[in-house]
Amino acid sequence: MFHRFIACLLLAHRLSEVPVKSAELEKTDRVALLFRAAQEQQKGIILILEGTGLAGLVHTVDELSSCLDPRHFQVHHFPGYETAPERKDPFLHHYWMHLPRYGDLALFDGSYYHEFVRRVLKGKLSRDEKKAWIDDINRFEESLQANYYLVLKVRLNRHGKDLEDELKSDKKLKSRAALIRKRARYLVKEYRDYSQELDRLTQLTGSPLSPWFTPPEGKGKQVRSLVLDYIIARMEEFLSVDSRQAVASYDEAMKLMRKLNRERNTVRGESEEEIERSEES
């Protein structure tokens, strides 16, 4: 009886030492759960990241890549006007071709918004063409919403001087491909004109179904956290899923399973080392 009492004390002590899940880990668990729900409901997710906050963009992409099933997640780095050849196909055709399958996520980095702004700044679009392209964008996104896609549009702002500093100091940004670095140098050079034109474009393309989300300026990790919060909120509404409760229920079930397993092994008289090996297996 005394040995059973000691074993129970040891069990209670070890359970109290189980680390509490961090807020960031909970977020990634919730994002992963929501994308599994999107797969079950056969709904596609499109995430558009635009603006001058490239460090926030890179950190967000890396975080999503680490917590999602790579079979259902693709990042499309569109070259944009500065490197893309002149095409004869209609505007948006290239983006239509990269829509995700239902249940998957497609992340558009350097999307049709970036291409539009670049062409406007180069003087390649007339007034009528600009109006036609904006109408095309709005109809495109409306048709996506009508066909079971959720369009998430995030504008990441960063002051030109801060972006220039991050190109030198942010390890994730420095390690990116030459295309991203080239885009960053362009944004530093054309910061004012680019930001103003993107301002006008976002005002003309926001809607209740596909609004723009603009988090406060900050470093990559800070912005990443805010973007994940936004993704979670929009997906919960779109899918009618309470991800916080679902993750908490799953964690509680796993904790109970571990507790019952340890109690069963303790009754068998197994040592602490044997119990640990049993849990790991």
Average pLDDT taken over every residue: 79
List the quaternary state of the chains. Answer: single chain
Beta-strand proportion = 5-15%
* Residues in helices, as a percent range: 55-70%
Per DSSP, the total helix count is 13
Give, in spatial order, the strands making up the sheet with the most strands. 2-3-1-4-5
End-to-end gap: 29 Å
CATH H level, superfamily name: P-loop containing nucleotide triphosphate hydrolases
CATH topology call: Rossmann fold
What's the shape?
globular
Q: Could you say which structural class the secondary elements and strand pairing correspond to?
A: alpha/beta
State the order of secondary-structure elements, H for helix, E for strand.
Answer: HHEHEHEHHEHHHHEHHH
List segments where confidence is low: pLDDT < 50 over at least 5 consecutive residues: 1-20
Major beta-sheet overview: 5 strands, parallel
Tally of distinct domains: 1
Radius of gyration: 24 Å
Q: Total strand count, please? A: 5
CATH architecture: 3-Layer(aba) Sandwich
CATH class bucket? Alpha Beta
